[in-house]
Design a protein that fits this description.
The complex is a heterotrimer of chains A (about 350), B (about 525) and C (about 80).
Chain A (H helix, E strand, L loop, with lengths): L1 H37 L6 H11 L7 E5 L1 H6 L2 H8 L3 E5 L5 H14 L4 E5 L9 H16 L1 H5 L2 H7 L37 H16 L3 E6 L8 H14 L2 E4 L4 H4 L16 H18 L12 H23 L5 H11 L5
Chain B lengths: L5 H17 L5 H17 L3 H27 L5 H45 L17 H16 L9 H8 L2 H4 L7 H8 L7 H34 L6 H32 L17 H7 L2 H16 L2 H13 L2 H24 L3 H31 L6 H23 L3 H13 L18 H22 L13 H18 L17
Chain C lengths: L1 H10 L19 H15 L10 H4 L2 H13 L1
The chains are: A alpha/beta (about 350), B mainly alpha (about 525), C mainly alpha (about 80).
InterPro entries (chain C): ACP-like_sf, PP-bd_ACP
Protein name (chain C): Acyl carrier protein
């Protein structure tokens, strides 16, 4: 009996310990989230898209775009808005892995009802062998459920006012540096296929099911990038899309329709697109979405007044920058480095 | 997988604990063995075969030695001739065992070093290099388990322990997962028995183990992984920096290495504790050492002990040293005889110490550096003793201790500078730049914000070091009368735990803007 | 016993060797001291001390050293 009582007391203490711990973690997480929401400029570039997505008013986003840096260097929501009235948001992150795409999607569904989810396919080919994949899963899961993992570094901003300023247009930023790609044609036909790691496959399926559950259509898109794409990947994706009955667009095969000029449209030797490249891709995709999916034109909707405002500002700034890019072709030297560094945060 | 990786901490370790508790007591060692091989496999894949091979071989040598010992006893222990004959045989078997293991280690670890230097010599002689430099895959922890295997054989030979007849249990001694990557190098007598007792998990072990792991994460994630950024920046581009920065980086590296290695040891020892296994300590507040000899009894203790037991002592009773002693007594007098014997025994120890860290001239230099310093310390001992007596110095007084500790720090920092440098040449250049180009103003003109660390990082590093030092001083000066966090009243103890957890979560160098830093000693 | 103490006194005459029980543990004898001690013991008692005997338990006190010598002499 004494033993039993002791045992019970011990268990009670363990329980109490973890209860207090959970409360503490919850409290700190809550506080950290509040601080982050109140001070956008204190949030690291990579965490901004999720933060801004959470801040969008309920049920206003119709198209959600997911992916790594290829996604937010290619798609510009405000441009689609100005032309077709499509309300899109880029939930991309530099170096986003597919687990993070999944949790970004979960974040979106908390508050939004996007009809369409575009997944930039480069996340599918990030290497995730065994342990590294497991680590990514744990990290993405942990960050989603315990925001303190995501925002833990905010103490630096609180103490030393470290800032991460940025001009953000629904997940898109201007990238006005040009560094041409001169490697020539890169989509050489073959019947070979690129392998997908099993972790990625699992999460791709989870993303698909989550879309099904929330009545959103999932579309796979490969943006033009000689550094990241080839025909092997095209074959893999095409087969996957066919099997699952998904739409798949490989823009790497549509260079001519897009009018991509690798002398002018590349940010960094054929890895990412600059503003000029993004303009062309967005123009194409906007029309594609408008024609193939039944998306509402929200421009007359009063709830979207702020979008119209932002759209105007975007149009002006973008035109200005595009003109400048055409004129002095290249910004070079240190200035170019600085801008590129700002364009693509460390986490490549 | 690695000890500071979330997969280890949040998946592997809990899973093993759970499975361990669910397994019947008698079978628990099997589970631990399986966990060890799985752990090894996640890092080195097929190379786990090396570990298995070593285990089979070590087991066999142990049995062979035992067989010789038994048959010697049967044949009449009393007769000296028989005994000497058997002793000779045993010695041969031991030599076979040791040489095979060292040979395997040498082939894998030192082949390239040998090839490069041989090529260099051949080039001098006008020949083209004939040895190809190959990239050999090194099984993780080979330097650690090889030493454990050798110590097992020697201990059986010396009859310090009975050989383990059970292959699986010996395998567990060599492949206990917390010790695989970077030790501590334990002797069979230390962990052998505890490993297969299969004790039930106990609350106090679990809480003490977790606390220890937490403390290790604190050192590694808050301090070491930040210092890493600065250290890498300076050591990889040392030409770009002046002497004061180089000196500062040497100190930073020493601290990084300590926080990392000892932090990892905390995780390792804590992991062992969870299962009720006491793994030997590897650090004992090394920065409180008053001289280099003491430092080496407090820093990487198990390596020092190993070298002392299996290199230093065997040498000191070897024929060579005995001959020297006899010769010295006749011709040289006590002082020089003793100094000579010390040198004879110490030199191989420090050559081994240097080489063990890797085949590279800067490690060899590192070993020789300590050889010279320790020998000098031994040579000056009589003079020092005389001085203490002449001036009536109280050796426990702080005015005597603190300058000695500071002097030892300088020795340590210089040693680690060479240890970390990219080759001996770089080490020399860096070392001399400290004297040539020492400008204090670079310490506060903003240069330090250019290494990838910002103001906040320096604040946290400083605070972290302060906390670790405070804990060290409390223990060293025994300010709590031998009591620790474990003996505190519950609210205080919990407050410490919560504080540590939150500190690691908030100030840990993980996630965006940081990179995961691999364990340094896992590379040796 | 006396002979052992004599040898020890020769190494360091400021220590009361007979009374100490932790010669190694308390570091009154360091590893260099042990080397000289071993060679002296071997010469005076005509025994051979193997590396395996070099454990703290054998050197922690004068009694322990004495016991070890006796054991080795019997061999």
């Amino acid at each position: 009996m004494q033993d039993f009582k002791n045992n019970l007391r011990k268990r009670g203490r363990v329980f109490l310990f973890f209860l207090i711990l959970a409360l503490l973690l919850g409290g700190v997480s809550w506080k950290v989230c509040q601080t982050a929401a109140d001070h956008e400029e204190w949030v690291h570039y990579r965490n901004k898209s999720a933060l801004l997505l959470r801040k969008e008013p309920k049920d206003t986003i119709d198209v959600l775009i997911l992916g790594d840096s290829l996604s937010y260097t290619a798609f510009s929501p405000m441009q689609m808005w100005n032309k077709h009235g499509i309300a899109a948001f880029v939930g991309g992150q530099s170096g986003q892995n597919i687990q993070e795409s999944y949790y970004m999607l979960k974040t979106a569904f908390e508050n939004q009802k996007p009809r369409l989810v575009l997944l930039e396919t480069n996340v599918i080919f990030r290497p995730q062998r065994g342990n590294s994949g497991l680590t990514m899963t744990l990290a993405a899961m942990g960050s989603y459920y315990f925001p303190i993992f995501t925002h833990h570094d905010i103490w630096k901003s609180v103490l030393t006012d470290k800032q991460y300023p940025e001009e953000n247009y629904k997940g898109f930023q201007f990238r006005e540096v040009t560094d041409p790609y001169r490697g020539g044609a890169y989509m050489k036909e073959t019947s070979q296929k690129e392998k997908i790691s099993s972790t990625v496959e699992d999460y791709l399926e989870k993303i698909r099911m989550l879309c099904v559950k929330n009545q959103a259509e999932l579309v796979l898109i490969s943006t033009p990038s000689p550094a990241n794409y080839n025909y092997k990947k095209h074959n893999t994706l095409e087969e996957y899309a066919r099997q699952k009955g998904l739409k798949y667009e490989d823009l790497n095969l549509k260079e001519e329709e897009l009018g991509i000029d690798w002398e002018r449209d590349s940010l960094d030797k054929g890895d990412h697109l600059n503003l000029s490249g993004a303009w062309k891709v967005t123009d194409f995709i906007g029309t594609y979405l408008h024609e193939n999916f039944d998306l509402p034109d929200r421009r007359e909707d009063e709830a979207y007044a702020s979008w119209n405002e932002l759209g105007k500002k975007y149009e002006e700034r973008a035109k200005e920058k595009l003109e400048a890019m055409k004129k002095d072709d290249k910004i070079t030297g240190e200035e170019a480095d600085n801008r590129r560094e700002r364009s693509l945060p460390v986490y490549e | 997988m690695s000890y500071h990786n979330p997969v280890y901490l949040f998946l592997f370790l809990p899973a093993v604990l759970l499975a361990y508790q669910l397994t019947p007591r008698k079978r628990r060692w099997i589970l631990l063995l399986f966990a060890g091989y799985f752990f090894f496999w996640t890092i080195s894949g097929k190379l786990v075969l090396y570990l298995i091979g070593t285990t089979f071989f070590t087991h066999y040598i142990g049995l062979w030695l035992d067989l010789l010992k038994t048959s010697c006893k049967e044949k009449g222990e009393k007769e000296k001739a028989v005994r000497t004959q058997y002793r000779k045989k045993e010695r041969l078997v031991l030599a076979l065992g040791v040489c095979t293991l060292l040979g395997a280690l040498a082939c894998l670890k030192y082949y390239n070093f040998f090839a490069q230097n041989a090529n260099l010599i051949l080039e001098y002689a006008g020949q083209r290099g004939i040895f190809q430099v190959k990239t050999l895959l090194l099984p993780v922890g080979i330097s650690f388990y090889t030493l454990q295997a050798i110590s097992y054989m020697a201990d059986v030979y010396w009859e310090k322990i009975r050989p383990q007849r059970h292959l699986g249990k010996l395998a567990l001694f060599l492949g206990f997962f917390p010790q695989i990557m970077e030790g501590p190098i334990s002797m069979y007598g230390q962990t052998g028995e505890a490993l297969w007792k299969g004790e039930d998990l106990r609350g106090e072990n679990l809480s003490a183990g977790c606390a220890r792991i937490l403390w290790g994460l604190f050192k590694k994630m808050i301090i070491a992984d930040r210092l890493y950024v600065l250290v890498t920046a300076v050591f990889e581009h040392y030409q770009d920096y002046n002497g004061s920065i180089v000196a500062f980086a040497a100190i930073a590296y020493t601290l990084q290495l300590y926080m990392e290695f000892s932090g990892c040891m905390d995780i390792v020892i804590g992991s062992g504790r969870l299962f009720g296994v006491t793994i030997p300590e590897n650090f004992c507040r090394p920065f409180a050492s008053e001289n280099a000899a003491q430092f080496w009894r407090r820093w990487h203790i198990t390596l020092g002990t190993w070298l002392k037991t299996y290199v230093f002592y065997p040498l000191s009773v070897s024929r060579m040293v005995k001959k020297w002693n006899r010769f010295g007594k006749k011709h040289l007098g006590k002082y020089f005889t003793r100094l000579g014997a010390t040198a004879l025994c110490l030199f191989p120890v420090w050559l081994c110490n240097g080489l063990w860290h890797g085949a590279s001239w800067n490690y060899i230099f590192y070993g020789m550096y300590y050889f010279v310093i320790l020998l000098a310390g031994s040579a000056l001992e009589p003079a020092r003793d005389q001085m203490i007596r002449a001036f009536g110095i109280n050796q426990n007084a702080l005015y005597w201790k603190i300058p000695r500790i500071l002097k030892t720090w300088v020795i340590i920092f210089v040693g680690e500078l060479f240890f970390r440098a990219n080759g001996l040449k770089a080490g020399m250049t860096m070392f001399f730049s400290i004297f040539k180009d020492f400008r204090l103003d670079t310490l506060w003109d903003g240069t330090f914000l250019g290494f990838g660390l910002d103001k906040g990082d320096y604040m946290v590093i400083f605070g972290g070091i302060l906390l670790v030092s405070a804990a060290g001083i409390i223990k060293e000066r025994n300010l709590l009368n031998g009591k620790g966090v474990q003996d505190m009243k519950t609210p205080f103890r919990w407050a410490v735990y919560y504080g540590l957890i939150l500190a690691v979560l908030i100030f840990g160098a993980y996630g965006i803007g940081y990179q995961q830093v691999d364990l340094i000693y896992a590379g040796f | 016993m006396e002979k052992i103490i004599e040898i020890l006194k020769d190494i360091d005459d400021s220590i009361e060797w007979e009374k100490e029980q932790g010669l190694i543990d308390r570091r009154l004898l360091d590893s260099f001291g042990v080397i000289s001690l071993v060679s002296e013991l071997e010469d005076s008692f005509m025994v051979e001390i193997e590396a395996g005997e070099m454990v703290p338990e054998n050197f922690n006190s004068v009694e322990a050293i004495y016991e070890m010598i006796q054991r080795l002499q019997e061999k």
